[in-house]
UniProtKB/TrEMBL annotation:
PANTHER family: PTHR47978. It comes from Starmerella bacillaris. One of its GO terms (molecular function) is GTPase activity. CDD domains: Rab5_related. This is Rab family GTPase.
Length: 184
């Protein structure tokens, strides 16, 4: 059997500090999760493959950026020439969604035209736990609905996942891989 074809793309992770960007990447690339990880300083880099077809592999070069304001000026360096961006927020933090929306606006102005942007709500395990604890709650829990309608309006891919349990993590990267401009 011949070796699969490998198509390589650059993917950048953006979002407020502590939404779980590094955890998401560790879960996807290494299959592990650690509570109370230390924050990313500057940026970290990993490469990881997604098999799209038996003979086609998408290889993502993934840049994990620090969410802290003091590193914000460095971000353009990471999303320059990026084919894809995962803009991550915490499904229980309205503020992190607002921050995600401002990243999307920045990408639309500054990043390459063809960039595929996915809005990714992380910590789904916590959201599900809260819902289970108050099954009769009439008030809304979390910000899924706001995030979903924003993503639809803005034409973004949308996912909800948990780096902690691994739920939906593969789907995020596979979904983005499927949108990559692969030449026949
Ligand atoms: P980053 O600053 O965006 O890279 O966030 P980190 O990956 O460092 O995660 C921040 C904190 O949130 C850490 O204490 C993680 O253990 C925790 N965390 C990350 N992902 C999840 C998740 O899916 N569920 C829960 N419950 N906690 C998470």
């Amino acid at each position: 059997m011949s070796a699969p074809r490998i198509a390589q793309f650059k993917l950048v992770l953006l979002g407020e500090s502590a939404v779980g960007k590094s955890s998401l990447l560790l879960r996807f690339a290494r299959g592990v999760y650690e509570d109370n990880r230390e924050s990313t300083i500057g940026a970290a880099f990993l490469a990881q493959n997604v098999r799209l077809e038996p003979d086609l592999v998408v290889r993502f070069e993934i840049w994990d950026t620090a969410g802290q304001e003091r590193y914000k000026a460095l971000a353009p360096m990471y999303y320059r020439n990026a084919n894809a961006a995962l803009v991550v927020f915490d499904l229980l933090s309205q503020e992190s969604l607002a921050r995600a929306q401002s990243w999307v606006r920045e990408l639309r102005v500054q990043a390459d035209d063809g960039i595929i942007i996915a809005l990714v709500g992380n910590k789904l395990d916590l959201l599900n736990q809260l819902k289970a604890e108050s099954p009769n709650s009439s008030g809304k829990i979390g910000i899924s609905e706001d995030a979903k309608s924003y993503a639809a309006e803005a034409g973004l891919l949308y996912y909800e996942c948990s780096a902690k349990t691994g739920e939906n993590i593969e789907a995020v990267f596979k979904g983005v891989a499927e949108k990559m401009p692969i030449n026949e």
